[in-house]
Amino acid sequence: MKGVLKKMLTSHKEVVYYTLRLDNDVIAMNELIGSDIKIIWDNKVVCTACRKQDTSFYRSSFCYKCYWNSPQASQSIFKPELCTAHLDIEERDLAWEKKFQLAPHYVYLANSSGIKVGITRSSEGITRWMDQGASQAIILAEVPNRRYSGDIEVSVKRFVSDVTNWRKMLKGNPEEVNLKEMKKMLSVYVPQELKKYIYDSDLVTEIKYPVLHYPKKIKNLKLQKEPVIEGKLLGIKGQYLILDDDRVFNVRSHEGFICTFSREENKDKQVSLF
Questions:
Q1: Where are the alpha helices (DSSP H) in the chain?
Q2: Bridge partners of 62?
């Protein structure tokens, strides 16, 4: 199966159910756990914004032109506290920015490699947590636009991290955290004018992942260095495929790569437990 690699789709079930996408083709990944798989890069990539094909990206899955001009690669994407669409001020493309920024957003606390604060569109809450490999998550606030979520995140990240330690996340499940208590403590630091958006519910979402064996000494695989990656799939967590020999492959960081994916036939065929 060949096509442009996209981040895996996730469904929140007893364990997260993963679907790999290559253009319009989909692969049920949980069913392949315990099997040998192979990914071959075609030495071509496709820009996230303009879909132009090339042999490499300029930065962050964008070509040079789109990185400096597309609203999808603007500074406010990476720093939501810089959003201005709610003020009717354009950064690169006001129509696109209004559609993207002027939507309800969650500010959340998640436990992936320890407690962290983050933001996401309200429609993508649990998807974001699964993509980050979180085992627990709670909503701190729901706000009407991306800028307000960025303002709250900036205030709260003075006290907890805003990034996931992906190596620690991939080595197993983190120690359980009392997220209800953490929410209560951190709510104090939400800016006064935004406290009205603190989320009423204290529901904690629990997430489990389909993993047979966690790596100990992690080796991160990149297609630019190894255009052919193959091995036994031992699990999936976040957007990472966990392979034998303590190797991991980040699907999301390879979005836009044109690849061929296959399941390798092997004599010691195993049945997935997921």
A1: 64-69, 75-78, 94-101, 125-131, 146-156, 166-170, 179-186
A2: 59
Q: What is the pTM of this model?
A: 0.93
The closest of 134, 135, 139, 138 to 163, measured between CA atoms, is: 134
The position carrying tokens 């052919």 is 228
pLDDT in tens, 117-145: 999 999 998 999 999 999 999 999 999 99
Distances from the Cα of 10 to the Cαs of 30, 124, 128, 166, in angstroms? 11, 11, 10, 18
In this structure, the strands spanning 219-221 and 247-250 are parallel
pLDDT digits (tens, 9 = 90+) for 60-81: 899 999 999 999 999 999 999 9
- Say how far apart CA 79 and CA 247 lie, in whole Å: 31
Cα separations (Å) of 181 from 54, 140, 195?
49, 11, 17
Element (H, E) at 269: none
Amino acid found at 108: Y
Amino acid present at 87: L
Pairing of strands 205-206, 228-237: unpaired
Residue 9 and residue 24: Cα distance in Å, rounded? 12
Nearest residue to 178 via CA among 227, 224, 109, 228: 109
Structure-token match 């998807």, residue found: 127
